[in-house]
Amino acid sequence: MVRYFLLLLVVVLVSVGVCLQSSCGGEQEAASTEGAAGCGCNRLRRAASSAADSKEERPSSEPAAKYTAAANEKISQMMFIPGGEFLMGTDDPGIPQDGEAPQRPMYVDSFYMDVLEVTNQQFQSFIKATGYVTEAEKFGDSFVFEGILSESVKSQITQAVAAAPWWLPVKGANWNHPEGQDSNITDRLDHPVVHVSWADAVAFCSWANKRLPTEAEWEYACRGGLRDRLYPWGNKLNPKGRHYANLWQGDFPVHNSGEDGYVKTSPVMSFPANLFGLHDMVGNVWEWTSDWWTVHHTTDHQQNPTGPPSGKDKVKKGGSYMCHKSYCYRYRCAARSQNTPDSSASNLGFRCVSQEKQ
Ligand SMILES: *[C@@H]1O[C@H](CO)[C@@H](O)[C@H](O)[C@H]1NC(C)=O
Ligand SMILES: [Ca+2]
Ligand SMILES: [Ca+2]
């Protein structure tokens, strides 16, 4: 009797293991890169002007994620990133107008980097300890992807971003209420914090005795020591049919099949780490860097570059759960995008670095 029970248990465990290995989903990769720059990711300005007219199908919501013991332990861990030479950017840009090219030699010093994107729980601790008020809270609104809003919130909105009508400015949306007043973070403390502006991210990192990574540090860390690869894990999006990042599967922006398990943000650490031990370097949420934006780069060898001395936009890296090859082919280490520092959105977060072990 006991033996049969054990046998059954083994069978169940093996099935679960197989399921995790393959993520229980097929591989999907859109062929077309047309319009790959059209995600509107970089168009989030607070003075949005045109009327919202899209009434698209909304994705179903995923079950609430549990805060695992493993995540708890790893939550504020930093990984030592050994300094070295690497090739930044690419000579084969997926989105040329983003200034991904040319490929250029760099050296970065050693540093420590957060293993995970900063979570809601970590950000909540910061707010509790400091009383800090985020920019979205001061402005009274933030940009939320239409597909994750409740009907009642959507019905109150009259404006949208002209070039990207799926972005809606939602009153009361902020880190603590990611989809507006009728939402909260209770069931997603282990998800990445969103609706944080660049200054909010800087404030958090300084409080933690850390700082934002430079774009060069971020990209070096993303590549995890691999040379000339698209993704933190290699060149194939779904090796062996497995998902390595929280991205968008389906037709953007109308249907997200959630094949990778998530139609919105995922608990940090839901996908495999790269060779430096870092999770979600691409996908889940975009990550702020300290650099000002430019698309002009020198090919001279550089050491610890920090970007232009001034600018209008800050660089963000890694793409998000909203990225699909057809619209936002930016879930590559060389990919980049920009936002004004006061921007905040439902797919934009950050992680910190430091020179010394924390
Ligand atoms: C958070 O939202 C859930 C579901 O929408 C609700 O049941 C719960 O009371 C809310 N919690 C707080 C602290 O507002
Ligand atoms: Ca997803
Ligand atoms: Ca990320």
UniProtKB/TrEMBL annotation:
Give the molecular function GO annotations.
Answer: formylglycine-generating oxidase activity
Q: Which UniProt keywords apply?
A: Signal
- Predominant location of this chain? endoplasmic reticulum
The Sulfatase-modifying factor enzyme-like domain, residue ranges: 76-353
Q: Which domain of life does the protein's organism represent?
A: Eukaryota
User: An example Gene Ontology cellular component term from the record?
Assistant: endoplasmic reticulum lumen
Q: Where in the cell is it found?
A: Endoplasmic reticulum lumen
Span of the secretion signal?
1-21
A Pfam family found in this protein is: FGE-sulfatase
Which InterPro entries does this one have? CTDL_fold, Sulfatase_Mod_Factor_Kinase, SUMF_dom, SUMF_sf
Q: Which family does it belong to?
A: Belongs to the sulfatase-modifying factor family.
Please identify the protein, giving its name as recorded.
Sulfatase modifying factor 1
Q: What is the lineage of its organism?
A: Eukaryota, Metazoa, Chordata, Craniata, Vertebrata
